[in-house]
Predict the structure.
Amino acid sequence: MWGSRFAAPPAEAFDAFQRSLPFDRRLLPYELAADRAWARALAAAGILTAEEASRILTALDELAQQVQAQPELLHRSAAEDVHSFVEQQLLTRLGPLGAKLHTGRSRNDLVATAFRLFVKDAAREAARAVMALLAALFDQAGAHPDVPMPGSTHLQHAQPILLAHYLLAHAEAFFRDAQRLRRVRESADACPLGSGALAGCAFPIDREAIAHELGFARITANSLDAVSDRDFALEYLFALALTATHLSRLAEDMILFASPEFGFLILPDAFSTGSSLMPQKKNPDAWELIRGKAGRIVGALIGLFLTLKALPTGYQRDLQEDKEAVFAAHDQLVAMVRIAAGALAATTFVADRLRQAAADPALLATEAADFLVARGVPFREAHEIVGRICREAEQRGVPWTELPLETLRTFSPRFDESLPAALTLEAALARRSVPGGTAPETVQRALAEGRVRLRELEAAL
Ligand code: ARG
């Protein structure tokens, strides 16, 4: 492919070190699509005759079929990368005509084109997986419309919320992830073919026609940028890393909630493992692996960032490092999302235990402060009054809600017989009916809206 200028072949160790075919063979369908588009563009520009182009196109189709039937043809090839693999195959099949396809193009614009096509498809696959997880969250939320749970900050009981509200909180994060993945598709949606090695193609090929044939929305604007730019790959890795981070946080909650101390949920057998020693164990390994694997996806992002940093302008071989990072992160993330969706759908939430935990009187302290505010007490003062009541109850060793009204009235004369009605879980939930709040009807509306947004996003992808 480039040997004539060399007196000696590459050292065996170096050849193995530099070859990318073992991983970039995954790009073959995209490489072949780019080859077809290029053959047509060369014919349209009068560089190939119609007959030559048609023979090349036939050979490309045959190659695709043959690789499908016998993958070893690709897997055992000694070619340096997927681009030279196709070129070698065309030479074998077509002789000198096979050598004409590389006119005016470079592996630099080819690899950028094939990789962008891959990222476009991959981002859509990842977004679809995330949308299936969203559906699982919505189904669990819909199945538990009125189950309360303690809402926490700092892992300390804060205010009561609905389990459905909690599940929809995770859904919001994953919805943003799906949207972000969709935007990555748009970032990758520009065709670099025709940029040549760096300076642009010297033959009058129609770049717009090539982009159109390959399903790109537009062409890249600058040939030098087009062969150096891997922003789309970094954006994809960021979108994957953030999705993985959200998954890891969901996993952490599920692991805690499955512990006997919480007991909020029962792990599904189908997504749990046992212990080789302790017969009673059921372990949340699915969630632990999801939490663990998130690390390597963030690692892939940082790795490619560091590869790209300080590269001089133009194609550098360092850029070959982009593919393994993206392939591995994509495969892991899609697997993680699918396992999370399966595990979540099969999880049993323990409504009685959640209700019991949500009955902690500490969760209603804010209601008492709000009760005073409604009777004219400035909030800061109300907060202090209820804080003193909580301390007093703690010293007496009783829940603060069990202090007699006369005692409460020594802290503020504004407490009266209507207090108990305000201090119920139902009242605390119902009061939070602002958009985005945890009141039952508000949560139902949010769920219905979430399902509509999901359908819209599905249609847009
Ligand atoms: N295999 C290379 C890559 O993945 C593309 C080949 C370009 N090589 C070159 N020496 N210009 O980036």
Q: What stands out?
A: The beta strands are 148-153, 156-162, 190-191, 218-219, 265-266, 348-349. The chain has a mean pLDDT of 97. The longest helix spans residues 107-143. Residues 405 and 417 are 8 Å apart (CA to CA).
